Amino acid sequence: MIAVDGKTVRGAKDETGKAPHLVAVLAHGIGAVLGQVAVNAKSNEIPAVRDLLKAFADLAGAVITIDALHTQHDTAKAILARQADYVMTVKGNMPTLYRQLKKLPRAAVPAVSSVSTDHGRRARRTIKAALAPAWIEFHGAAQVAQLRRTVTKKGKKTVEVVYLITSSSDAGPATLAGWTRGHWHIENKLHWVRDVTYQEDNSLVRTGNAPRVMATLRSLAISLLRLEGHGNIAAANRHHARDPQRTLKLLQTA
Question: In angstroms, rounded to a whole number, what is the distance separating the alpha carbons of residues 92 and 111?
Fold first, then answer.
């Protein structure tokens, strides 16, 4: 499972107010960064993601989770060309597809639910998945799904409905829900850590490629610590700071 998402290095704005934007690929679960590219200043994430995926020699059997911005025919083609599958979120940027998925009859479709509790909140996720109808004209689409998230925190309930499309014909509803939830590892295990633990947005490094290099080094540090088994990166940093030999050993055995 591989998550793809972008992040702006907000603290590195130049004199025109523009900041470097990077796209990363992260392995679900272990939280290791597999690759990263900078988005061209005159472009956006969409072509950058396709270029990043092309850099991998072998993606056969992988499943790529990606957010609604990248729910594009050409991105789906690029993923399938690498012998991988995709799970994409469908929102308003694909209005026709969104309307089609929203109107699909689901009364007879079995629902699969799961409940989790953490950080003082209770979340119920209910998913209904079905084979993609022939008239859904999206490249490689095998299944479509509706995912409903009901979150209760301090007595307040919020409901969010998300539509999914995937090229995987074998994944069951529970698996699709797990893949979608796992996509957020890239936010929680990478972007949040770079912002909070490494204070990326407060960095004064702004010249040339230096912000991109520093972001890459932060991602590398996070990945090495994750692979060593550390769940709390801040605590892992303190552990290694107490003895430089620990860091040297980590680098030698990585």
Answer: 24
